[in-house]
Amino acid sequence: MAEAYIVEAVRTAGGRRNGKAAGWHPNDLAAQVLNALVDRTGVDPAAIDDVVMGCVTQGGEQSTALGRNAVLASKLPQSVPAVTIDRQCGSSQQAIQFAAQAVMSGTQDMVIASGVESMTRAPMFSTIALYAQAGLGSGPISQTVKDRYGVKEFSQFRGAQMIADKYGFSRETLDRYALESHRRAAAATEAGAFDAEIVPLEVETSEGTQLHVRDEGIRYDATLEAIGSVKTLEEGGVITAANASQICDGASGVLIVNERALKTHGLTPLARIHNLTVTAGDPVIMLEEPIPATRHALARAGMSIGDIDLYEVNEAFAPVPLAWLREIGGDPARLNVNGGAIALGHPLGASGTKLMATLVHALRARGLRYGLQTMCEGGGIANVTIVERL
């Protein structure tokens, strides 16, 4: 069977809303990642067969063939095509899977999977709001779909509360998980664990030009008391902004190649892609799908969770990884070892390749073999990707 290899994986440091990365146009922010991938691998930019770029809020500065515009803003030649995809929070994880399928098929040899999201410059739900304000249409979900599931609306926030209720997670349990995310992210940052994956961004400050190389969302002084003081999103609920992922600006990407490209370009792989899975389930509770998706992926790969050394489960909301741990039987010590989106931020369309960059570099730093990545996605979809460190 043909193989797909990751030869480089990078990301920008996360920027808070209106933070250090906010001054970067999404085209240019994504271009920094594309440039870093070719610079670090030394490949001829013209040899890249395609760029698959994830982005969720494809409006405003992120509209109109964002992937192509990012290529034109980069050092890649105009001969390199690109496509922009939306699988909600899993957009760039799906980009990885599309890129891997392309090189495994032999139709292409080198494909960049990437993602970008400036949640400052293209706010979440802004495209929906613009149409609503203009009185155009009834929104992205038709009445047919709402009637089928007996709901007035589909909400990830409601889905997170439903998971907390289903699994009996208390507010304190979620807040303690959030605190641990900040503690792990802070420790990883101080230890330089992210240095190999971060692409520096030049930013203008009142003190002159500086390099943005640290994730801005980490609260180094986080306490359970402070997290517990944040108001819940709904009365009687347990979900808060403090135990959910942070709004974030960022870009990320991985260069995926086949055996032929490894030999032709003299590349050294960081990891081999071992399994590609995507499944779909209940769009109402919505965020629970990583559980059956992981079971399916492990069965297809002929593996058990005990075979997996590290796992990245996106911290969209604290109940998601906690429910996944319980149902899959995972080891908490192997989960999001360098912190997750609660501390580091969740730049929507960029999170898939962001988590992969962190996972691959964490496996290498620890000398471990297998890693698994999954995340919940709007509409009740989930991707799972298993990689083997080489």
Write the topology of this structure.
Layout: E1 5-12, H1 26-41, E2 50-54, H2 66-73, E3 82-85, H3 91-105, E4 110-118, H4 126-133, H5 143-149, H6 156-167, H7 171-190, E5 198-199, E6 201-205, E7 208-212, H8 224-228, E8 249-257, H9 259-265, E9 271-280, H10 290-301, E10 310-313, H11 319-328, H12 341-344, H13 351-366, E11 370-377, E12 381-389
Structural description of this entry:
The chain is an alpha/beta fold and 390 residues long. It is built from 13 helices and twelve strands. The strands form two sheets. Strands 1, 2, 3, 4, 5, 8, 9, 10, 11 and 12 form a ten-stranded mixed beta sheet that branches. A two-stranded antiparallel ribbon has the order 6-7. Strand 6 and strand 7 form a beta hairpin. Helix 1 crosses helix 2, helix 3 crosses helix 13 (351-366) and helix 10 crosses helix 11 (319-328). The two termini are 18 Å apart. The model has no long low-confidence stretch (mean pLDDT 96).
Quick overview:
With 390 residues, the protein is α/β, with parallel strands linked by helices.
Beta-strand proportion: 15-25%
> What count of helical segments does DSSP give?
13
Mean pLDDT: 96
Radius of gyration: 20 Å
Low-confidence stretches: none
Distance between the termini: 18 Å
In N-to-C order, the SSE pattern is EHEHEHEHHHHEEEHEHEHEHHHEE
Shape: globular
